[in-house]
Design a protein that fits this description.
Length: about 425
């Protein structure tokens, strides 16, 4: 690959992670496709505008697996990043060979195995349970008013409970998943490889326990697919599938909820509209995902063939990085994108934004994530209508995690409805 100077933009740099909205906006207004780097080493094309991002996410000329590239292949960007993070060779397949890193027909085969669990009808059937979980968590807060941290006390246990019950992960394993997931997102030296290694071993044990005691859950379904037809789902794919569904099923949802709460508390005029007209939560959820969704960038893609995008020639094998936040703030697609507007009616593929991706890899759990927000947010503000931040907005602690935007804590003052 080319050897540009290290001054090229890197969305995983400290500066970009500290203020991703400003940084991605500068790149978007510079050009729809900008040359840059990943982790200071991997050459990449950053795709910054809405239309071009949609193209990369849906056009078959852009693929998720380097093996799908025709002709001479370049180095696998994910391999380079894994090596830079210190991931052992034996553990790397569990990062690279999951559903997110596959193209058709392998991707279609894997996705089909779990699609039925995430249909609109089946997800809607979960609403009563989600409401019960939310109310039970809110019951833990003192009714007299107190300080609380809504990340560990509300957002995290809510999202983790939902995906664990869907998957069939017992409550006794919840703490382990919290530890593993936190480690995967850590920038501390050696933390990520250690967490991944422990997670792989833990999932093997969980699978064996569930195999001995099958139940009506997604984990049992996946185990049965492997046991009855190893060609349909290999053991490596089974373990990777569990890791992917669990981490993607609770970490983004946790921080979408935390980010949304903070966003509404810093926009009291919009929160007032929701209190006046609860029907607005239907549009507010998508607006919040667009505005403050935790996923800043998509999984990198590769140009399968020589292609032109946004007027820029891209060679086969080049790494292409769709920037979701930049696209969701694109003024060519959204009127006043910097403004939170819970009445905003969006048009376009999916939900009108790319917070859940687009195309073949569109988030399997998008509807479940929306339902979680649509249940947890009204429940919280209904129980505590005078909820307020316990710190100044500028003092909210944002974690520096590559490609993500999430709070490490959300300190608030809780006041009950009858106060």
């Amino acid at each position: 690959m080319s050897t540009e100077s290290p001054e090229l933009p890197d969305v995983l740099s400290d500066a970009m992670m500290a203020d991703p909205y400003h940084g991605s906006g500068l790149l978007r207004e510079q050009a729809p496709v900008v040359r840059g780097r990943l982790m200071g080493a991997v050459s990449v094309w950053y795709v910054t505008r809405y239309e071009e991002v949609l193209t990369v996410l849906s056009d078959r000329r852009f693929v998720s697996n380097i093996a799908s590239v025709t002709g001479d292949q370049t180095d696998d960007a994910r391999t380079q990043m894994a090596e830079k993070l210190g991931v052992p060779v034996e553990d790397y397949p569990y990062l690279a060979n999951g559903i997110l890193g596959q193209d058709a027909p392998a991707h279609s085969r894997l996705r089909k195995l779990v699609t039925r669990a995430f249909t609109v009808r089946r997800v809607n059937d979960l609403r009563p349970r989600l409401e019960t979980v939310a109310e039970a968590l809110l019951d833990r807060f003192d009714s007299s008013g107190r300080h609380a941290d809504l990340i560990p006390e509300y957002a995290y246990p809510f999202s983790l409970t939902v995906i664990c019950e869907l998957m069939g992960i017992p409550e006794s394993d919840h703490a382990a998943w919290h530890t593993w997931s936190s480690g995967l997102g850590s920038l501390e030296p050696g933390a990520m490889p250690a967490a991944l290694h422990d997670m792989i071993a833990g999932v093997r044990e969980i699978i064996e326990r569930r195999r001995e005691s099958p139940a009506d859950d997604l984990l049992t379904t996946l185990i049965r697919n492997h046991d009855e037809d190893g060609d349909r789902l290999s053991v490596e794919e089974l373990i990777t599938f569990v890791i992917t569904l669990m981490t993607a099923g609770h970490e983004p949802s946790t921080h979408a909820l935390g980010n949304s709460i903070a966003e509404l508390l810093t926009h009291p005029d919009q929160l007032a509209l929701l209190k006046q007209d609860p029907e607005l939560w239907r549009t507010a959820v998508d607006e919040l995902v667009r505005r403050c969704g935790p996923t800043q960038v998509s999984v990198p893609r590769y140009a399968a063939v020589d292609v032109e995008l946004g007027g820029v020639p891209i060679r086969a094998g080049d790494v292409v990085q769709p920037m979701l936040t930049a696209a969701n703030y694109d003024p060519r697609q959204f009127t006043e994108p910097e403004r939170l507007d819970v009445t905003r009616s969006m048009t376009g593929p999916g939900h009108g934004h790319v917070g859940f991706g687009h195309g073949p890899h569109y988030c399997l759990g998008a509807y479940l994530a929306k339902l979680q927000l649509g249940v947890a947010l009204p429940a919280l503000f209904g129980r505590f209508p005078e909820l307020s931040l316990a710190v100044a907005p500028e003092n909210l602690p944002w974690q520096k995690v590559p490609g993500l935007r999430r709070l490490t804590a959300l300190p608030v003052e809780l006041l009950p409805a009858d106060r």
